[in-house]
Amino acid sequence: MTTILVTACGAPGAARLLRALRDNGEREVRLVGVDMSERAIGSHLCDAFHLVPPGADPTFPDALLALVEQEAVDVVLPESSHDLRHLAPRRGEFPVPVMICGPDAERRSNDKAETFGAMKRIGVGAPEFHRVTGAAGVEAAARELGYPDRPVCFKPVFSSGSRGFRVLDPSVDRTHQLLNERPGALAMRLEEAVELLPEDGLDLLVMEFLTEPERTVDGLADGSRIVLQATRTRESVRCGLGMFFVTLDAPELVEASERVVEDFGLEWFFSIQFMGEKVIEINPRISTMMIQEDFNLPWLAVKRALGEASDDELRGLQGRVRPGHTVLRFFEQVEFDP
């Protein structure tokens, strides 16, 4: 039996990931889930569950090391961006494979300014942007990028998902937002942002606001090349999460992603998000992805980690990806008596 430790097993994609690992069609697996919250869904779906410090805590890797020995773990699958900062530099201390990239790739991927600057250097599209500090910097950069004649957007240089992302749009209807939209609307006026932002001490990116369709290349990499990938659209979003997407054939995005993988040295799971032809985000971890009955990328990665499938063998499976394969995500729940 193969024992897999999955971190952040309360993350939005955890339930599907755990089911994909269990429904691998080859063998029974034992799933060990860890999370900083006892309410994590993985506590109900895994064979064993442990509370651990947050991934941003420097003691997080030590907690995982102890559990690898205690639970006789065969492979570690980190699921959250927050897990990577302290875990990536120490992955070599683990007696089993830890499916994450190295610290340099992690740092560069999560620094959005580094990401956009690198894209221009390697000939891959990226948004026009300015890296600034504080409210005055945001205002100056927004006006340089065309505000108020056109909307712009901003987010923290270091962030995860859509956290801190806002659109600056002078035409936003604040009354409509107040009365008809859920709390947390993304659009606001520049004057409102300047009023709320600190004067200094906060690095921010102010960027052109892109409206082209969003597409994502999800895959496995070996540090210089893509091993396997599936490219998808992002048709619907709820709470910052893709809820409906369709697999497609987009060789131009795969070719651009190959350049990103090589330049950043990405290993194991990656997710590269595009709007039109421009990269807007690199996630050096497993993400929400398409899974077919004959193309189970999380399980194939486990086999690779265990030495049961070579990269050449995995590349031979690329043709299994079916363009048009559709994923619809929805809310689910469990019931239990404590």
Quickly describe the structure.
The protein has 338 residues and is of the alpha/beta class.
Keyword list:
D-amino Acid Aminotransferase, Chain A, domain 1, Dna Ligase, domain 1, four-stranded parallel sheet, alpha/beta, Rossmann fold, 338 residues, 16 strands, globular, 3 domains, five-stranded mixed sheet
Walkthrough of the structure:
The protein is of the alpha/beta class and 338 residues long. The protein folds into three domains: 2-99, Rossmann fold (3-Layer(aba) Sandwich), CATH 3.40.50; 107-113 and 211-328, 2-Layer Sandwich (D-amino Acid Aminotransferase, Chain A, domain 1), CATH 3.30.470; 128-208, Dna Ligase, domain 1 (2-Layer Sandwich), CATH 3.30.1490. The protein is 30% helix and 25% strand. The chain has twelve helices and 16 strands. Strands 5-9-6-7-8 form a five-stranded mixed beta sheet, with helices on both faces. A four-stranded parallel beta sheet has the order 3-2-1-4. Strands 11-10-14-15 form a four-stranded antiparallel beta sheet. Strand 12 and strand 13 form a beta hairpin. Helix 7 packs antiparallel against helix 9 (190-196). The longest helix has 14 residues, at 251-264. It starts with a strand and ends in a 10-residue tail after the last strand. The mean pLDDT is 94.
